[in-house]
User: Fold this.
Amino acid sequence: MDGTALPARPPRGLHRFANPGRFLRLAGRVQPWLTWPALVLTGIGLAWGLFVSPADWQQGDAVRILYVHVPSAWLASAGYVALAACSAAALVWRHPLADLAAAEISPVGAAFTALCLATGSLWGEPTWGTWWVWDARLTSVLVLFFLYAGHIALLHAFDDPQRGSRMAAVLALVGVVNLPIIKFSVDWWNTLHQPATITLTGAPSMAPSMAWPLLAASLGYTLAFAAIVTARTRAAVLERRARALLAARVEAA
Amino acid sequence: MNHAEFVLPAYALGVLVPAWFATAAALRLRRAKRVLAALEPAQGRGGRRA
Assistant:
């Protein structure tokens, strides 16, 4: 594939974004709207969390790790949902962009999962008295990191890149089973980790002075994740097109 | 600030990890645009508009 191929079916719904040229035009327009709000919101959220929001009566200032840990934990899971969605699109519809996007999501998702684990460890030592414990939530997030790492490894494990992409996509889809385990681990098992403080259905059991900076940081990190993945995918599309042009020149020579 | 030895490394990681990935992605995108512009200077499609 030369990166410029048109979709095999009439462009309808999401299928029209499978055209790399159309994706490049759209992503080029969207990129600044992701990047600059990401910088502003992340800056506001982290500064608010570090300097303005109150310390916890029990945990003291260690609670400020919340403003880095929770967004990275959210993106570890959300990034995996995006990876699985791209993998499904690549397997089912053979979208030319889906494989590329999945390959660009997994390193970023792995980095945010590692960030979640590292900040959780830094939070665990002053509050639980230990850097690590093999509890259900921590272990399932570690498994998520290994799933990302496995996806990256499988992409490069075969001489035929398409076979590697297919195997990696299958792993990504199988790994989806880990997401509800992460989410409900704190309800299903007795763990050191606290249950969810913020849910989609109920009011947050957190003071607004802490909830607002957390919301700002979470939005900022989410936009940053999207901006990074968008830039990486744009670069991957352009690199593929450049490789195809070079190959055509070599063939013509 | 108490627990600064835990809080500050967490914030440093929280800034440096995304910043490193964002910078690497921006540099990679710029390099890819340059390579493509060198390969298809006449058309000026895709890479320049992207």
